[in-house]
Every structure is written in C-alpha cells, then in structure tokens.
Task: structure prediction
Amino acid sequence: MKRSRKIRWIAAALSLGLISGCGAGEQKGKEQVSLYDRGLRLVERMDTMAESENYWNMMTSSEEMVSVIKEIGAQDYSDPRAVYQVKLSENSTDLLIEFLGGESSYNELPEELREELEDRLASSIATRFSAMAGTEMLAAASVLASSDHFIDSSLTDNLTYFYIYDNGYWGAVTFLPYEDGIVHASGLMIKSDIFGEEGEEELFQWFTEYGGLLEEDISKVSP
Result:
C-alpha cells in the first residue's frame, strides 16, 4: 500500500539525506531499527512530554487536562507487558469505507484524496480508542501526541502497534509507508480501562466483533 507523494514528502526526504546523497549511503551501513523499538521510543517520548511541567504548561492551562497528563507522566513505559500489531489491509480499508456508507463517494475521489482518506482511517484506530475514555483524555492525548519519520523499505502496509502496560495507560503507534521507503509514525496514549478489567482480552473481543468485519490482522509482536 505504498503511495507516491513525492512533493509532499520532499522535505522529509531532504532531512533524511535521501536527496543530498550522503544519508542514503549511511543508512545502508546501519543496522535496521525494528518497528517495535521505534514505536517504543515514541511512547517514551510521550511519557517525557507528560513528565515535563514546562512542556504542558506551554500547551494547556486546563486543570482537568493537566491532571490527566500528570497521571500519564507518573507511570513507567520502559517495559511493555505485550505488544500487538494491527494491520489495516487494502481489502479491510475497502470494507470500512463500505461500512461507513461512503463507497460510491470514495470511488469518485481523486487518487490523492483516496490516499489521504486511507491514511486517516488507519490513524483513526488509536484516536477512537483514546476518545472512548472521554474528551479530557482525548485532549490530553492530543497534547502528548508525537510523530517521527524514518526509512524502512520493507514496510508496505499501514500498521498500528499497541503497547500494553499494567499502569492504566497504553501507547498506540501507527506506521504509514510512503514512496522511497519513507515511513511516518504517529503516537497516541490510550486509557486502558476503556476495555474493562480483562483489558487485553476485551481488546481482542473488540477487534473480533468490529475487526472481523474489517478483516484486520492482529498478531503479537516480540521485542
């Protein structure tokens, strides 16, 4: 599901050294960093944001949001209990669009807007989970949201990694592949009790009921 958006991503390509000629050679000589590790770095970065009083004071003055952010920042995210991968395939994207009633409208969209919609659908998985805990949680998660760009030519599908912890919060990182091996990663925090006491089992139940319709592929990721 690679997309060709060379103009949109030219700035990212320049920053990564793709056009300058030196970065590409250096990349080949480096050991490939796993998606697991890249996602964990984003989760830990969001934790660092939540721990920084200077940061969230610059981002919000809402006492309710600050309370949620402080609670997120008080937890440890260095060692997830489990990590699960959700793959939103091209077929499942089509089914989701049909389920939302927009199949005919989608078919009339220009190719560039189809790509934009597919990206938003993939990213919406984490957003929907975060929103289930209420507007304050979603607002706090938005303040802490973080992103990154890197090179990984092996990635061809939109993926979301769920980092499962026992501290009341989970991290979700969505990976979107583009042309020239450029990958955009975006992280969001989720309040885990939206799935109830069972947590992990209820996550699977949610994907079984709704993900079954979308043919989403769920698998456990090893560190």
Observations:
- Residues 110 and 116 are 10 Å apart (CA to CA).
- The chain is about 50% helix and 20% strand.
